[in-house]
Specification:
This protein is mostly helical. It is built from 7 helices and no strands. It starts with a helix and ends with a helix. The model has no long low-confidence stretch (mean pLDDT about 90).
Length: about 200
C-alpha cells in the first residue's frame, strides 16, 4: 500500500469514528415528554415535568454545541446523559401525575360534598335572615352571592365529570367559601337583633 492510500484510509476511519448525533435518543425523549404531557403531568406533577423539560432543553443545547464543533472533536456523551435524565424524569412525572390526580380527585369529591352542605346551610340561613328597614339591599346581595355559590358548585360538578379535578376542587372551595360567608353574616345579623 502506498502512503497515500494509508493516509486516505486513516482519514476515512477517523471520519467514520466521529461521534454520531443521538437522533434516536432525542426522538425517544421527545416521545416520553409527549406521553407525560398526555398524562397531564404539567398539571398534576409540575416539578417533575419541568425537570424533564429542562433536561431536554439542556440536551438540545449540548447537541447544538457539539454540532458546531469540528467533526473529529465532537462528543455527544453529555447530550446522551441529559437525554437519559429527561426520559427518566418524564417517566417519574407520569407516575407522580397518576398518583396526584387520584389524590386530587378524592379531595375534589369531598370538597363538592362539603360545598353542597354549606350552600344548603346558607340557603336555609337566608330564609331566617332578619328583614326590615334597610335590609333589602343586603338580602339581595346575599341572594346574589348564594346564586353565585350554586353556579360554582354546578361548575365543580361539571369539572369533576370531565376529570378536571383541580378545577373541580377550586370551584367547590370557592362555592363553600362564598356560602359560608353568607351564613356567618346572617348569624351575626341575627345575633345583633336578638332574633332567632
Amino acid at each position: 500500500m502506498t502512503l497515500k492510500k494509508i493516509t486516505m484510509l486513516t482519514l476515512l476511519s477517523l471520519l467514520l469514528a466521529c461521534a454520531q448525533r443521538p437522533e434516536q435518543e432525542l426522538e425517544d425523549t421527545r416521545r416520553a415528554l409527549d406521553e407525560a404531557r398526555a398524562a397531564e403531568a404539567a398539571v398534576y406533577a409540575p416539578e417533575e415535568f419541568e425537570a424533564a423539560e429542562e433536561a431536554l432543553r439542556q440536551a438540545e443545547r449540548e447537541i447544538e454545541t457539539q454540532d458546531d464543533r469540528f467533526a473529529l472533536r465532537r462528543s455527544y456523551d453529555r447530550a446522551s446523559e441529559l437525554l437519559s435524565q429527561a426520559r427518566t424524569a418524564a417517566q417519574e412525572a407520569v407516575s407522580a401525575a397518576a398518583a396526584n390526580k387520584e389524590n386530587v380527585s378524592k379531595q375534589a369529591q369531598e370538597a363538592i360534598g362539603e360545598a353542597e352542605e354549606v350552600v344548603e346551610t346558607a340557603a336555609d340561613a337566608l330564609t331566617r335572615a332578619p328583614r326590615g328597614k334597610g335590609t333589602a339591599a343586603d338580602l339581595e346581595a346575599m341572594q346574589s352571592s348564594l346564586e353565585a355559590s350554586r353556579e360554582s358548585l354546578s361548575q365543580a360538578r361539571q369539572h369533576f365529570e370531565e376529570e378536571r379535578f383541580l378545577d373541580a376542587l377550586n370551584e367547590a372551595k370557592s362555592a363553600a367559601e362564598r356560602a359560608g360567608t353568607i351564613t356567618r353574616d346572617i348569624e351575626e345579623a341575627i345575633r345583633r337583633t336578638g332574633r332567632r
